[in-house]
Amino acid sequence: MTYSLQAECPPLREESDGSLRVGQSRVLLEIVIRAFEDGATPEAITQRYSTLSLPDVYAVIAYRLRHPEEVEAYLAGRERVAASVAGQFHQQRNDLGDIRARLLARRQARG
Known about the structure:
Layout: E1 12-14, E2 20-22, H1 29-37, H2 42-48, H3 54-66, H4 68-110
Antiparallel strand pairs: 1-2
Helix pairs in contact: 1-3, 2-3
């Protein structure tokens, strides 16, 4: 009996913002990887995120184990993006606080 083996690409798709989604779900690669690194089994991950398929989760974990440098580089990039967005949010929140303080000062000056 002969077997026909075929290589498969990991079930990942790249969004326009550079994020990677698993299979046909909206679940991000980093969510699956972090859950696995925190000790969750593939079965537990699919229970948490019902739009994921078990074969896709196993395939993504296998890809992570076979390509640790590439996945770590991707995760580090995503963390930099998240830190940048958090910094922008914090700055906007501070800007709104300044505006509020000026408006309150005007109100108090008028009356």
